[in-house]
Specification:
Elements lengths: L1 H30 L4 H4 E7 L3 E8 L8 E4 L13 E3 L2 E7 L9 E5 L4 E11 L5 E11 L28 H11 L5 E7 L2 E2 L5 E3 L3 E8 L1 H4 L2 E11 L5 E6 L2 E2 L9 E2 L5 E6 L8 E12 L5 E2 L5 E2 L11 E14 L5 H25 L1
Length: about 350
């Protein structure tokens, strides 16, 4: 009997201990300023012409002093900044100009589904960050088709039986349905460190542009860069990569495939006279396995647009972009010479683009 009483007492204290732990976890989850659930709620509206994201902050003490799009902190374009309305922070993106605020557009070439996505950063008072990922998926409208009336066939007509073999396109369709949707990241690096949008780079600085798939997608898909445009925050846009090949190798080299299956290109930091921001807009296509390289006119091999004889079907077409903040530095003769050479090539790039448009 004594043994039973001791066991019951131990069991009672154990239950009390467990109940106390549950109460502490409940209080921390619902009343801690770090709680993601209690601090804000998110509402995403996917409209035909725009995407609207609302963050309703539940914390009146303003735990998030800065809320902005990833890599666009202090970006001067008002359309890319959060609109403040009391405890609400809202973003509205025009889909016709999705590049403006760094949205990525992913089009599934087999299903016709198009997805736009981005991330919002919330800086916390305790120097931590939280991220809100949002996306909207749209389905393309079916093309109009016509029904052609077929003539009557004779009663003794026997249609020839056809043996059907699966084509590469059908196999691609099957694999893409089973495989995850690829995620593509484009980033700029200096000395193997990622350059963020709020870091200013001196013009002429050697940099690297890296385009890569996430680890899961890289096992299934391959990359190729078709086009790359450079522009400012206004209306100026120039093509610097055309059909997979560089237009000016002094400013921007061809993309090469690394051992880690990344696309990597060397380039020099440059800017346009009327803006300190340079936006790079890439058109990247995703194919199964590896993409065949392109032989450019300068004799180099680039992982750009596929050759005409390559019939391998494409699975996705990705449009993505990144920003670089650049300043000119002409405090000595060497910097002046670099600045003048860059400006000369930018003028030549504009002339070459006139021929490309023709």
């Amino acid at each position: 009997v004594i043994v039973i009483k001791v066991n019951l007492r131990i069991f009672f204290f154990f239950l009390l201990f467990v109940f106390s732990i549950i109460l502490l976890c409940f209080a921390f989850f619902f009343f801690s300023p770090l709680s993601l659930v209690n601090n804000y709620s998110t509402q995403i509206n996917c409209k035909k012409d725009y995407i609207k994201v609302d963050l309703n902050l539940n914390d009146s003490t303003n735990s998030y002093p800065d809320i902005y799009l990833e890599n666009l902190k202090d970006y001067p374009v008002k359309d890319c900044q959060a609109i403040k309305e009391g405890n609400r922070r809202s973003f509205r993106f025009n889909l016709k100009q999705f590049h403006q605020c760094g949205l990525t557009k992913s089009k599934n070439l087999l299903t016709g589904l198009t997805t736009y996505y981005h991330r919002i950063v919330l800086d916390h008072l305790n120097n931590t960050q939280e991220f809100v990922y949002f996306n909207c998926t749209y389905k393309s409208l079916p093309k109009k088709h016509h029904i052609v009336k077929r003539d009557l066939l004779p009663e003794d007509f026997v249609e020839e039986e056809l043996v059907h073999f699966k084509t590469d396109f059908e196999l691609t369709d099957t694999l893409v349905q089973q495989a995850p949707e690829p995620e593509v990241l484009m980033q700029i690096k200096q000395n193997n460190e990622v350059v963020t949008g709020n870091l200013t780079i001196v013009s002429g600085t050697p940099l690297l542009m890296e385009i890569k798939l996430n680890e899961e997608s890289a096992k299934i898909y391959g990359l190729k860069a078709n086009f790359l445009e450079v522009g400012n925050t206004l209306e100026l846009n120039e093509t610097i990569l055309f059909n997979g090949c560089t237009v000016d190798p002094y400013l921007f080299d061809n993309f090469n495939l690394t051992e880690n299956e990344y696309l990597l290109a060397k380039f020099r930091a440059f800017k346009f006279p009327d803006s300190s921001y340079v936006q790079f807009r890439a058109n990247v296509q995703i194919c199964l396995n590896k993409c065949q390289p392109t032989q450019c006119s300068n004799g180099q091999t680039a992982y750009g647009r596929r050759r005409r004889r390559e019939l391998r079907p494409q699975a996705y077409e990705i449009s993505l972009n990144t920003l670089l903040q650049v300043k000119d530095q002409t405090d000595n003769d060497d910097n002046k010479a670099i600045h003048e050479e860059l400006q000369k090539h930018l003028k030549d790039l504009r002339v070459k683009n006139l021929f490309l448009k023709q």
